[in-house]
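An instance follows:
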Amino acid sequence: MTDLEQRRREELAAALARVRGRITTACAAAGRDPAEVRLLPVTKTFPARDVALLVDLGLFDTAEARDAEAAAKVAEVIELRPAAAVRWHMVGRVQRNKCPSVARWAAHVQSVDSPRLVEALQRAVRSAREAGRRQGTLGVLIQASLDGDPARGGCTLTELEALADRVAAASQLRLEGVMGVAPLGIDPGDAFAQLAVAAQRLRRSYPGAVEMSAGMSGDLEQAITHGSTCVRVGTALLGGRPLTSR
């Protein structure tokens, strides 16, 4: 390991300790076990070397937001850490024409928000498995819009259960729960309270859909208070985002 890589590893280790401390404190305040909350690094715009260092620090889940960047990064991480079983999550909006690529590298897609996307992912996963380019079904979280603005991604809360029915009926997909982003201008606690109600309602119909992915660097405490099982952390863990991938 070069001196530069060692310094970066130390930076990441220190940031990881801080973020885990925040999670532990938030869970204590909410009367929850920190083991109930997964820390999901969001590594978009950061290099594969950072993903490899996070693997060395014990983080085997990582999230990306753009297919073109992720597909190349996945291949590079395999070269850097061939023995590591990294689980890749897609958290950005998915264009239907990118589904064949996403189906080859993603273990989970957290941003499913329309019936047409469900159909496209179903076809893509089936094709990838038939071609030997994927093993197993695709985990899916339904992204809920917490302000009702479809331009920002997510289905409305009133549409969520019908979309969940579509996912549950898709043989190549596995319904895992819901995801939400607190909109700007809205108190995160209020937004996550809405998402928690939707998540609880979904679990009544689909007991296995236990995931509630909510909370990022600036609002993970509020999300944990309202039951988040997965916090998606970029800046607080990796630092300010570079203008381009290094």
